[in-house]
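Below is a filled-in request sheet from our internal design queue. Each sheet records the structural input a requester submitted and the sequence that came back. We keep these sheets so that new team members can see what a complete request looks like end to end.

REQUESTER: design group, bay 2
PRIORITY: normal
MODE: inverse folding
CHAIN LENGTH: 244
BACKBONE (tokenized):
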């Protein structure tokens, strides 16, 4: 296996009217190719900030973040935009599909902004991505707002796959789905990881984490192992202060 993500001592500090806010405090992690990693943490823990940094939507204040060996902190805004369009596939809780566009058009959209995909290949790659997530051909010409929630999320996953990214980054991807549909979507992420895709999924739900190879926890901007998280929770429970 090879490293897709290599994060060392990552800090993110925001300057606000109330003073400095330390959203991340020395986070370090390594994610190998083909690994399914779950990042868990309560609201305000820093996990969304970490997702933004990993997705090249934000820059760390200090520390090192390498994506497939590339130090992204050294890159220009244009370079980061190219990485977001070609190396990272995003899946969001709210799907973020164009409601009036067809399923096929939604999946093809990232290829329009890609400098590496010829126009002649866009249709073929979009169809291949939709087939990979089990969207039937008869739905390709439907508008996305005509689909069920589970179908929309699978289309969103196909859109994330269409550029063959190094990383699939999913932020609470089952938050708007019922339990049966959530299970199917999570099983799809599991299948993608088993096929060699690297998946990082951010959630607050421990049942979601059961599908991953490994889980890390973010609390107060710091990364904790499962054992450290258990010890932290046990200490809070002993003081009667535990809250998810």
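RETURNED SEQUENCE:
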């Amino acid at each position: 296996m090879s490293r897709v993500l290599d994060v060392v001592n990552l800090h993110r500090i925001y300057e606000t009217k109330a003073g400095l806010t330390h959203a991340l405090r020395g986070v370090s992690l390594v994610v190998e190719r083909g690994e399914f990693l779950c990042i868990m943490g309560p609201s305000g823990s820093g996990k969304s900030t970490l997702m933004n940094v990993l997705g090249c939507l934000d820059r760390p204040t200090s520390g090192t973040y390498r994506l497939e060996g590339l130090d992204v902190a050294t890159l220009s805004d244009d370079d980061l935009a190219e990485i977001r369009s070609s190396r990272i596939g995003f899946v969001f809780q709210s799907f973020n599909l164009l409601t009036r566009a067809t399923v096929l058009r939604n999946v093809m959209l990232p290829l329009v902004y890609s400098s590496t995909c010829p126009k002649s290949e866009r249709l073929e790659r979009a169809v291949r991505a939709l087939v990979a997530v089990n969207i039937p051909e008869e739905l390709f010409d439907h508008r996305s707002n005509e689909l069920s929630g589970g179908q929309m999320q699978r289309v969103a996953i196909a859109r994330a796959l269409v550029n063959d990214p190094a990383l699939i980054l999913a932020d609470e991807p089952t938050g708007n789905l019922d339990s049966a549909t959530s299970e199917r979507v999570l099983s799809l992420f599991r299948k993608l990881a088993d096929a060699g895709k690297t998946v990082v999924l951010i959630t607050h739900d421990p049942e979601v984490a059961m599908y991953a190879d490994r889980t890390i926890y973010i609390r107060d901007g710091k990364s904790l192992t499962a054992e450290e998280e258990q010890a932290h929770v046990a200490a809070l429970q002993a003081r009667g202060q535990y809250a998810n």
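SHEET NOTES:
- The mean pLDDT is 89.
- Helices lie at 47-54, 77-86, 103-112, 122-132, 149-161, 179-194, 206-209, 226-238.
FILED BY: M.R.
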